[in-house]
Amino acid sequence: MATVDGGGNPEELAVGCMLSIRTTLGDEFEGQVVTFDRPSNILVLQEAPSKPGPGPGPRRNIRLLKANYIKDFTFLGHAEDPLDPTNCFLDLAALQAREDLAIRQAEADAERIGVGVTSEAQSIFDALSKTLPVRWDKTVIVVMNEVRVSSPYHPDSVVGGTPAANERVKKVLDFERKRLQLRSSSGQ
Amino acid sequence: MGCRNRAESFEEDHSGASSLSEALLLTTMCIIGLPVDVHVKDGSVYSGIFHTASVDSDYGIVLKKARMTKKGKGKTNVGKEDLVDTLVVLSCDLVQVVAKEVMLPTKSFGGNITSDDGETVMHDICSRESPTCEVENHMKSLTDVKHVNQSRTPVQNENGFTHCLPPSTAAIDFERNKLPVNQMRTSTEVDCGKTDKTNIGEIEAYSGSSINCRQAGDDNSKRNAGDFREKPEFVKGKLDEKNQVIKSTHETNTHLAQVEAVENRSYMASNASDNGFYRTNGNASVKADDRCSERSTITNSAPMSSAQGIDLILESHNMPEKSVEISAPKGTDSTRNTKEFKLNPAAKIFSPSFVNPISTTASMPISANMVYVPNSSPVVHAAAVQPETGLSTFASLPSMPVKVAQYSNLTVGNGGSGSQFSPPIVGQLAHNRAQPLRYGAHYPPVLSEHAYLQPSSPAVMVGRSGQLVYVHSVSHDLVHGGTAISSISARPMLNHVQYPKQQGASVGQPIPICVPPPILTNAPQPFALQSHIPLLQPGFPVTRPVSVPGPNGYYGAKFS
User: Fold this and answer.
1) Residue A112 phi, psi (nearest 5)
2) Nearest CA of chain A to the CA of B53: how many Å?
3) A13-55: pLDDT as tens digits
4) Residue A89 has pLDDT above 60, yes or no
5) How far apart are the C-alpha atoms of B223 and A91, rounded to whole Å?
6) What is the CATH number of the domain that holds B79?
7) CA distance to partner chain A, nearest, from residue B51 (Å)
8) Chain B residues in contact with A13 (beta carbon < 8 A)
9) Does A56 contact chain B (CB < 8 Å)?
10) End-to-end distance of chain B based on CA atoms, in angstroms?
11) Which end of chain A is more exposed for a tag (fewer CB within 10 A), N or C?
């Protein structure tokens, strides 16, 4: 890349290049250089849109790659600066909101995943969660905050709660177990 | 790259100490709050929500709710199962950050990620926009209002203030079909602008509001036909925000607010008039809708700093499709404007003053009626007052529903009132008064047309018994002129004048008995009619150009 060396500003020249990159960790991908930040040695790439997204613009994967982990790369072509400088605006409030939402979502998702439980227990939990409010208490599934379903999560391991609630949970659990068995058996 | 400069300045404000390039910073900002995969030196991959990055010297990042999704060969203090609330990945460990499905502000990306940009843009545009031009536009809009009021027909409005020529021929009308209205308008605006100089505060404010226009123009110009649908909402949202900002900042400047309000109104009126006019033209109506909606979204910045205005309109002309969808937002826009008025106290205060010129202009023609009115009954006075208030509301509030309601009230009054004379007069007054405004603002909207016609027709029925016939004739003329300008327009002026007389004759025939008492009343009535008609004349010739055959059949049916 003699031009890069010969040019006045290598970062400017490199922007827009289509590269195929292999990293020292074995990743291989193609992308277009969005920018190269010399102080941090980070190369920002955007991959070609895999599929037309639902939004107004194409959604792409963005990679921020430390340049010193590039094993080798192939120059595929040159395009113009992918960034539209006239549109470089950010709404900090929107970003904040997006992050908050994502964190809340992540927390909610995390709570749905039992720690130290079998995958069967997790699938039972997921099945129950479709019809009843459930949460994990360690390895115990707590339904409607009163009925506890402990390992091995059979209908006879349902304890607590009002008789009606208990019965209902047993019923649902039994039903869901049958469905899961049916699904697993049919799937295999 | 000027844009780059802007980005730089933007970053300088927010991260002066950053040593990172602005593009990296921008990218970093774009992926905040998004789920990312972070590859670290030992081959592990952590997935989490990108929280922030250190931009001082090394590019370290912070993830929220991170979880190891791929175990590397190195030993880490982060278990595979655990969800790490906050994971800091130092620059020395970082290999790669992969964010999926991100929208960078790339060139193919028409919209902005955010709405914050408005502020930045504002500054740029403020400096770019020539302030005098803006002021001219606004002042012009003030004067335009009068034109709208005086001239009943939309066409005349256009002609009146665009070319300062007397209302003229169909040729111009057709021209208007082809040309963006604003082109004409802007030309005159420039001329008039010289005379209008206002205070600097206004200028600033207007250049501020002009941003709306500019930005809308930018956005619109970037979008293609496919995206056109989204445009109104998109632009509107932005405008709303900015309008509020602008108003809140400049609310203290009452003068400014006033002008703004008037501007809104006048443009609503002109928009409406355009719309109405095109309505009657069938094919053109689509365009009118588009433009109307578009303009109404921009109403606050309505004066259309020349270039953008043209762009917008040209664009709307280019895409005649789906008038229906856009016309719907238009209605909401008008209501939105009214809301804005409410938001702006100054505008409220001003609205009466705005009405006054209308009443004065209208009063001259109406005066004949007024004279007549006292004779008939005092009730009329009250009625007459009502229309005025109604007008004021009309003028200030372009929203349709209000008007329709009032109008229906008036017609109801006709039917219900016991006194023979007063009701018709009321109806007339209402018609007279309301019409200038209606033509300007109310009629154009399609919705209003139907609503209006219906009340009028019952009035006609009532009219059979008494003098109402007179009213009904006039009202019909007016109504037709307003609702279906095209139909009436085909008729020469004389027809209108003659028409009431014919009616009177016809009335006399079927109800000779009624005539004697009414005769006294009849005498004034013709006057009233005449007074009306002359008033209408300025309006009608203008409408005439829009020739739509078939009115004759209508009239014949009525009278026979």
Assistant:
1) -80, -10
2) 12
3) 578 888 899 999 888 988 888 888 888 888 888 888 766 555 5
4) yes
5) 21
6) 2.30.30.100
7) 7
8) none
9) yes
10) 74
11) C
Q: Same domain, yes or no, for B46 and B136?
A: no
Residues B93 and B167 in one domain: no
Question: What parts of chain B have a pLDDT lower than 70?
Answer: 1-20, 76-81, 106-560
B85 and B189 share a domain?
no
Do residue B377 and residue B309 come from a single domain?
A: no
- Look at residue B382 and tell me if it is in a domain: yes
Amino acid, single-letter form, for residue A63: R
Which chain A residues are within 8 Å of B1, Cβ to Cβ? 85
Secondary structure in 3-state letters for chain A: CHHHHHCCCHHHHHCCEEEEEEECCCCEEEEEEEEEECCCCEEEEECCCCCCCCCCCCCEEEEEEEHHHEEEEEEEEECCCCECHHHCCCCHHHHHHHHHHHHHHHHHHHHCCCCCCCHHHHHHHHHHHHHCCEEEECCEEEECCCEEECCCCCHHHEECCCHHHHHHHHHHHHHHHHHHHHHHHHHC
Residue B104 lies in a domain: no
Do both B395 and B519 map to the same domain? yes
- Residue A144 scores a pLDDT above 50: yes
Contact status of B493 with chain A (Cβ, < 8 Å): no
Please judge whether B10 and A89 are an interchain contact, meaning their C-beta atoms are less than 8 angstroms apart. Answer: yes
User: Is B167 within 8 Å of B155 (Cβ atoms)?
Assistant: yes
Residues B277 and B130 in one domain: yes
What are B372-392's pLDDT values in tens digits?
A: 433 333 333 333 333 333 333
pLDDT of residue B20: 66
Single-letter code of the amino acid located at B295: R
Give the model confidence (pLDDT) of B89-116 as tens digits: 888 889 999 998 887 776 554 333 333 3
Task: Tell me which of B263 and A176 has the higher pLDDT.
Answer: A176
- Which structural domain, as residue segments, surrounds residue B241? 117-343
Q: For chain B, what is the domain count? A: 3
What's the whole-number mean pLDDT along residues A140-147? 87
